[in-house]
Amino acid sequence: MPRSPNTSASKAGPATLATVARRAGVSPQTVSNALNSPDLLRPETLERVRHAIDELGYRPHRAAQTLRTRSSRLIGYGIRPTAPGASAPVMDRFLHALSQTADEAGYRVLLFASPPGSAGLDGYEELLDLHSVDGFVLSGTDRGDRRQAWLEKRGVPFVGFGRMWSGRPIGDWVDVDGASGTDAAVEHLVGLGHRRIAFLGWPRGSGVGDDRAEGWQRAMRRHGLPVRGKRAQSVDDIASAQTAVGPLLDAGATAVIAASDMLALGCYHALRERQAVPGADVAVIGFDDDPMASLLSPGLSTLAQPLEAVGRECVRLLLARMSEPDAPPERVLLEPSLVVRDSTPASNN
Prior knowledge:
By secondary structure, the chain is an alpha/beta fold. It is built from 13 helices and 12 strands. It has a 6-stranded parallel β-sheet, with helices on both faces. A 6-stranded mixed β-sheet has the order 7-6-8-9-10-12, with helices on both faces. Strand 8 (255-258), helix 12 (261-273) and strand 9 form a beta-alpha-beta unit. The chain is elongated. 40% of the residues are buried. Mean pLDDT is 86; it is low at 1-11 and 62-69.
């Protein structure tokens, strides 16, 4: 008689390839081999995996038994959790652009939960086994991200929305040139007569945040403007930004460039707390062109990311990598555009 599924496993939900691997003390790939290529395993390993499968009541999806050479026409995209107080409309718009472009190419985007850290790799392993996805699009490619090396080692095609900030350059990517954007923001403010231009960014060590800070610093030095004491950092939420920008305003900044629209909104709150008016008293420029930017009073000047182009390029690069696995990596850097609204009037100082 077959064994009954383990009671504790049932309470925790259906068994997965990853839970079978943990129970058997092997890698998820070994479980996949036991299902699809049992001849690759030693008899004792195969028996241990089969025992775990039986004990947990694991039932692999039929796609796990299809040949790897057959295309599923699926592209995997891992959704990462948004921090409390943060907003993710930019990623929502990117996902729409990505899905639409993939659809036009005859593919579908398969979404799955992907927590940061090593635990998130289980989702990629399961998607490869259960759905035989053809490749992955990655976002949130921060330093220390293990996904690129993990996928490259297994020969799985992938493309990043964002540069591979961690270590040696691997893989194809599409990114928005944040440094170019903040450089253009400084140019705009200098043209309006501003000289005391501050930068409100994220903590150092963030690849994207450091890139945006570098463009501000580069442009300031090109114009001979001081940067010392004119940079502050905050996590990406309104309350923290409101506190962090205070010393910059105390020092007499006539304009603030923020690394995100969320940080810029914190600057708005700090100004109003001081009975000052954003735009009229201190110019503010954000980054991302969040939908709320045009709804603020005054409307927030900001740098818009070309998300439709990012989506198109991600799909193009991924399909090219699928057809030519050994081709040199391709990297695409796209320019953001400055959207001028009422938060950047001419300076009276």
